[in-house]
Design brief:
The complex is a heterodimer of chains A (330) and B (388). Chain A is built from 13 helices and no strands. By secondary structure, chain A is an all-alpha fold. In chain A, helix 2 (27-48) packs parallel to helix 12 (275-293). The longest helix of chain A has 32 residues, at 145-176. Chain A is globular, with a radius of gyration of 20 Å. Chain B has two domains: 20-43 and 329-347 and 355-386, no CATH class; 47-328, Cytochrome-c3 Hydrogenase, chain B (Orthogonal Bundle). In chain B, 48% of the residues lie in helices and 14% in strands. In chain B, the strands form four sheets. Chain B has a three-stranded antiparallel β-sheet, covered by helices on one side.
């Protein structure tokens, strides 16, 4: 092979991988998926409550999240006089960038994620933590009493669910002897041994922690509407609020994708079904599970949440790891 | 814990937990409320003065509009007072119809409250379900009176509409449905762990405190005090209808919820009994326009508690003085007592616990923090700036 052909191939590879990053299964696809999952969540949540949910924009209101997004983009963007301008502007952008980056680790259209390396699971845990730090900074920079209380609550909440969540994420990694999300997913689909069957306790712990991570009822404490208006988001409006909402939707995709990859076998080829189809089916079922759970509880108080997490959830998560160490669930 | 370490958190006048404008300034030490300063008077409508400027018949419609939820309680209270001044009494059938409407009103008010309480603790599913089922009662009220909110059933000397036989059947079948739903809510409220965690032991108001602070209605009854105007000083047809005054000694928000749910079941029984025993005859007596001079105080058990109207007449067609004491005002001191020591997160549900209905007073003030000045608009400025 002469020099020119290598160069050409290199350029082609670059174009292809850039297309992957930008279109499918990269950013464009993920944005569409984020809006779609918000619609699934809202519609199902409404059905459980005997309401209609989004109805008018597009068939069955499917375009409502997109319409909300564009509406917010066109709204006035108010920056409070007392706020920390730099943080106030940066946090919405970081809040979208973080789950978007983390989604590249998740295998979506094939059995390996767009980026995959040994240890990306630890990186994902860092992203989870950093999202809450962003939330805290967003609340803190607004300089509103409601926002600060919301931000502090978000940080407190993270301190209590982070360790059980880490242990629940570690369970499949210990079983598969790897710290790469794609490898864990491949290990499960290769042996037809899904994490949910091997480690049901770990799955339950993870789902509870994900409710807290997404600030869904009963853990919507940082943005409890009737207590502190919109919590840490109170002062954000216009484009910034639109970005926060998009970030939340991407987080929903990310959370469901991670749960599917670690506990439901991930994007696997099932007879004639391509990996993307199984990925969509699994993640939608996780989204449905999460929105069903958020419909059947009342909101906990922050002290009840923290003590509950440390008293009950942490020992259960440790129990799962002990069981794995004794060879049960691997 | 010095004064300096507290944070002042304002609640209202605009706040999602408050459905009407009202300001509470909380001093919070960490997460615990140490002091509350209520500032009432954001929705002063000058309604007492307006009552004095209009004739007794016009006042009937104004009294109905004092409250959007307990409109019938206010007209009942008003008509009773004026009837006393006139020396007339409503016919027995009219009294039964007043009772039926009052109890239906209690049903829709209490079920609305259960939904609001569920929403305050983030249990939106229960909120949606109660408000859906409440429609059954609203439709009944519409079928009887033609209106969902301001029924305009009462008039001085009786009621304006009769309840026909086929409507009686409709009321019975709707109540059967609603009774099942209320029993379901009672079950959910007592068993749903996350709801119990947020309401049991929250907003404690002991029996003696409730009496000292002159609490009224379900708030008082949930503190174990058997007090109900319907039983203590029977009006309309309550003297002839057997019913139980619901009390609960839990003294907390859970107790207030249970009391209201059980009261709904009791109301259903009252309506059923009244429909069975409703006497025949006329529904109103004609009364003169002018009312002889005198004074009258009238009491009614509104869904939120004891409602008091005072009327002073001077022999003309207009009252000389009219005074309304709504149950919310009576509950404000007790409310402030229960809020001290509460968690910040529990404020909304404790506030909602008395089923507040704020109708008080204030005027509009503009404040420019940057230039440190405030001013009040004149009527002309207001007109100029609002008609753009």
């Amino acid at each position: 092979m002469d020099h020119a052909t290598v160069e050409e191939e290199h350029v082609e590879m670059n174009v292809f991988s850039e297309l992957q990053l930008l279109v499918f299964p990269g950013m464009l696809f993920l944005f569409c998926l984020a809006f779609f999952y918000e619609w699934v969540d809202r519609k199902f949540f409404a059905k459980v409550q005997n309401r209609y949910g989004p109805l008018y924009t597009g068939p069955f209101g499917i375009l409502q999240p997109l319409a909300d997004f564009f509406k917010l983009l066109s709204k006035e963007d108010i920056v409070p006089l007392a706020s920390d301008k730099i943080l106030f502007t940066l946090t919405p952008i970081v809040y979208v960038a973080l789950p978007l980056t983390a989604l590249f680790f998740i295998p979506i259209s094939e059995q390996t994620g767009l980026i995959s390396f040994e240890g990306d699971l630890a990186c994902v845990m860092f992203v989870f933590t950093f999202m809450v730090v962003t939330v805290f900074l967003a609340g803190w920079s607004s300089m509103s009493r409601f926002s600060i209380i919301g931000g502090v609550r978000a940080a407190l909440q993270m301190l209590s669910y982070e360790i059980p969540m880490g242990l629940a994420l570690a369970g499949p990694a210990v079983a598969a002897q790897t710290l790469s999300i794609s490898s864990i997913a491949r290990w499960q689909s290769a042996g037809s041994r899904w994490g949910i069957v091997l480690q049901p306790i770990g799955f339950a712990v993870l789902v509870i922690c994900m409710l807290a991570e997404l600030e869904f009822v009963p853990f919507d404490i940082p943005e409890a509407e009737t207590e502190i208006v919109a919590g840490w988001r109170t002062e954000f409006s216009g484009r910034k609020l639109a970005l926060f909402r998009l970030g939340r939707d991407l987080e929903l995709v990310f959370v469901s994708g991670l749960t599917a990859s670690l506990f439901l076998g991930g994007a696997q080829q099932a007879s004639f079904l391509p990996p993307i189809a199984t990925f969509l089916m699994k993640t939608v079922s996780v989204v449905l599970l999460l929105s069903f759970l958020r419909a059947i509880f009342a909101r906990f108080r922050i002290d009840q949440m923290i003590s509950g997490m440390w008293k009950y959830l942490l020992p259960i998560a440790v129990l799962q790891i002990v069981l794995i160490e004794f060879g049960i669930g691997r | 814990m010095g004064y300096g370490s507290t944070v002042k958190v304002p609640f209202g006048p605009q706040h999602p937990a408050l459905k009407e404008p009202e300001n509470f300034l909380f001093e919070v030490d960490g997460d615990i409320v140490v002091n509350v300063t209520p500032r009432i008077g954001y929705v002063h409508r000058g309604i007492e003065k307006a009552l004095e400027l209009r004739s007794y018949i016009q006042d009937l419609y104004l009294a109905e509009r004092i409250c959007g939820i307990c409109s019938h309680a206010h007209t009942t209270c008003y008509t009773q007072g004026i009837e006393e001044l006139l020396g007339v009494e409503a016919p027995p059938r009219a009294k039964y119809i007043r009772t039926i409407i009052a109890e239906l009103e209690r049903l829709h008010s209490h079920s609305l409250w259960v939904g609001v309480a569920a929403h305050e603790v983030g249990f939106d599913t229960l909120f949606m379900y109660t408000w859906r089922d409440r429609e059954a009662v609203m439709e009944l009220l519409e079928a009887i009176s033609g209106n969902r909110v301001h029924y305009a059933m009462n008039t001085i000397g009786g009621v304006r509409r009769d309840i026909s036989a086929e409507k009686t059947d409709k009321i019975r079948s709707s109540l059967d449905f609603f009774e099942k739903r209320v029993q379901e809510y009672l079950h959910v409220i007592r068993t749903e762990e996350s709801f119990l965690k947020r309401t049991a032991g929250v907003g404690l108001l002991k029996k003696q405190e409730a009496l000292d602070f002159c609490a009224v209605g379900p708030t008082l009854r949930a503190s174990g005090v058997k007090n109900d105007v319907r039983a203590d000083d029977p009006y309309a047809a309550y003297g002839e209808i057997p019913f139980e005054v619901i009390v609960d000694d839990e003294c907390d928000v859970l107790g207030r919820t249970v009391v209201r749910c059980k009261e709904m079941l009791e109301s259903i029984n009252i309506v059923r009994y009244a429909l069975d025993k409703m006497p025949d005859g006329s529904t109103r007596v004609r009364v003169p326009m002018a009312v002889p001079a005198g004074e009258a105080v009238s009491r009614v058990e509104a869904p939120r508690g004891e409602l008091i109207h005072y009327a002073k007449s001077n022999g003309t067609t207009k009252p000389e003085r009219y005074k309304v004491r709504s149950p919310t005002l009576a509950n404000i001191p007790a409310l402030c007592k229960t809020l001290v020591g509460a968690h910040l997160a529990d404020i909304p549900i404790i506030l909602a616990g008395i089923d507040p209905c704020f109708s008080c007073m204030d005027r509009m003030v503009f404040v420019d923090v940057a230039k440190d000045r405030n001013w009040v608009w004149t009527m002309q400025q207001l007109k100029r700036n609002t008609s753009r």
